[in-house]
Structure formats: C-alpha cells, structure tokens
Amino acid sequence: MGEMRLIEAVRQGLREELAADSSVFLIGQDIGVNGGVFRVTDGLLDEFGPERVIDSPLAESGMVGVAIGAAMNGLRPVVEVQFADFIFPAFNQIVSEAARMYYRTNGDYSVPIVIRAPYGGGVRGGLYHSQSVEAYFAHVPGLKVVVPSNPHDAKGLLKAAIRDNNPVLFFEHKLAYNTVQGDVPEGNYTVPIGKAAVRREGQQLSLISYGLSVHHCLEAAETLAAEGISCEVVDLRSVSPLDTKTLLESVKKTGRVCIVHEDNLTGGVGAEVAAIVAKDAFEYLDAPVQRVAALDVPSFPYSPTLEDALLPGPPDIISAARELAAY
Q1: pLDDT score recorded for residue 299
Q2: Residue 1: pLDDT above 80?
Q3: What integer pLDDT is reported at residue 204 of this predicted model?
Q4: What is the pLDDT of residues 221-236, one digit of tens each?
Q5: What's 283's DSSP letter?
Q6: Which helix (H) or strand (E) holds 222?
Q7: Which residues are catalytic?
C-alpha cells in the first residue's frame, strides 16, 4: 500500500489501463503537452505517444462524438472534459447517442466510453468552473454515473469504468484532487460500480453522501459523537446505479437519515434517495428524511463569503443531525 493524493490515484489508474490494453486511449483539451488543466494526465503523452493521448480542439461535442464512434469500432476512449461545467455542449451526444446506442441497435453496438470531468465548488472558480452536474446524467437510463470520494476508490472505480461496456460519467471533485489522501494498493484492482461503502458505523442516524461531501459527513460525525449522537456514514460511490441494499440496511438500522450532497437541493440525487427511503423503509423511520445540499441559486458566486454560504459543510450537517436526533 502507498499513500497518494486523489489526483495521483486517477493518473495511476489511467497509466495502468493504457499499459494493459492497447484499445484504451485518452482524448481531451490540453491533456497531452500540458498534462491537463489540473495536470491529471501529466507525463502520459511521453509514455504512450500522441496516438494514445490526443489533444483535441475546443469542441466538447466533437470530442465525445469521436469517442462514441471509436468505442463502436472496438476502442475504449477516455474523454477528459476540462470542467464539468463545459460538458453541456456534448449533452446530446451523451444522452441521445451514447446512452441509447446499445438499445437502438438491439445490442449490436456497445459504447465503452468513459467521460471524466472535475466538478464542484470551493476553489473560487465562479460561475463556469464550480458546478455539480451528476443529477442531469443520473436521470438517464443507459448511463452509469460514478463519484469517488478517496484515492483508493478513484483508481479502482476508474479502472472498472474503463473496462465497462457501458458509457460511464466519472466525476472527480476538483478540491479533493490535492487535499484528499489515502492508501492505494499497487497493481491491478477494481472497485465495483454500483456498490456503496459504509465509511463509519453508527446506531442513531445515517448520513448518506458521495464525493467530497463524504468527508464533510465524517467530520460532522466525529463532532456529533462527542455529543452522544452516533452517526453511520454511507458513501454511495455510484449515483447511478444506486446501491439501494446498502443504504436501506443502514436506514433500517438507525431509523433516521440525512442525505448530503453539494449539488442543488431541488431535483438532486438526494431527492431520489429520499424517495427510495420513503417507499422501502418508511416503517423504520423515526423522523422525517432530511437533505443538506447547496442552495437553489442559478450559479456560484465569485465572492468567497457568498460561496461559503452557498456550499453545505460540516456545520450544516451537524445542525440537521441534531434536529433529527431530537425526534
């Protein structure tokens, strides 16, 4: 085991899959010579050459369209979208083409494509460099949507995504790239897509989250433990497909649930989780389902003070948990 940052784990996963499978190639803006805007692909051009690490024009629809065509002809492309905010020009390619190709061809063509994109706020990126977009794609049958919270999962889930025969959206929180560290095994391993993980055992309340927000939940759980409130923290890891078995087992054990994510409150992944809990664990609930999420505002402000007020953090989770524990 070696400790590394999340950004290094993603790079290692890409390097290993490029080395192991000649059908894998990378395509994206500035990912070759410059190593990507966050330097995730730094050094890979020198190792694998310009036919495997391809600098594309500034055209997300074109990048994804080329990748879909390549995937339909036996290759396994990994597309990097510089920021999740820039994915929308490729929305039609992803939703109308990649997600539906296997169905529309009666299984004749699969689209084994991975689309990586850094998401999330907290880096003072303002309006066009801070969005969380996972809920848009979690709504679409035919797509898998993965959001790792730590380096071990980032590498293992990425390798699983590249080997998957379905299109996978792979979102990496940009603030976590260099702030979240953890042990990562050397060599070949994968983490199954669609399987949640219990990060902390608890008895009184379930905190359900994914991505960077998992760490906010763990921090909040530590504070709440000192107050005598025992919280279980469930990391969904995949928001589509959802591991309903693990999250329902947790809710049935604790009887209280708070869902936490950085995306906007309305129509987010938390709404879907809440609906599942309300339907399949209603008789186990001792309190209403709570959600902690970003405020429903059109976009992220540049002002650090306003951005901090917009984003959910440990204080918001602690407040919601105290309210739930009081029932």
Answers
A1: 84
A2: no
A3: 96
A4: 999 999 999 999 999 9
A5: G
A6: helix 213-226
A7: 129
Model pLDDT for residues 247-269, shown as the tens digit of each residue: 999 999 999 999 999 999 999 99
Which domains can be identified in the chain, with CATH numbers?
Answer: 2-184 (3.40.50.970), 197-325 (3.40.50.920)
Going through 223-325 in order, the beta strands assigned E by DSSP cover 231-235, 238-240, 257-264, 290-294
Distance CA(256)–CA(239), nearest Å, equals 20
Confidence of residue 139 (pLDDT cuts 50, 70, 90): very high
Comparing C-alpha atoms, which of 247, 222, 219 is closest to residue 234?
247
Hey, what are 10's tokens?
Answer: 């993603």
Does the pTM surpass 0.70? The reply is yes
Strand order in the sheet with 168-173: 53-55, 24-28, 76-80, 114-119, 168-173, 144-146, 238-240
> How far is 308 from 210, CA to CA, in rounded Å?
19
* In contact, 259 and 208? CB cutoff 8 Å: yes
How far apart, in whole angstroms, are the C-alpha atoms of residue 45 and residue 33?
7
Burial of 321 (0-12, 13-18, 19+ CB in 10 A): buried
Query: What phi and psi, each to the nearest 5 degrees, are found at residue 121?
Result: -105, -160
Give the residue from 47, 3, 56 showing the smallest Cα distance to 27. Answer: 56
Question: How many other C-beta atoms can be found within 10 angstroms of the C-beta atom of residue 257?
Answer: 30
Amino acid 187: pLDDT = 83
d(CA 205, CA 63): 44
How many C-alpha atoms does 251 have within 13 Å on its Cβ side? 28
When pLDDT is averaged across residues 111-121 and rounded to a whole number, the result is 97
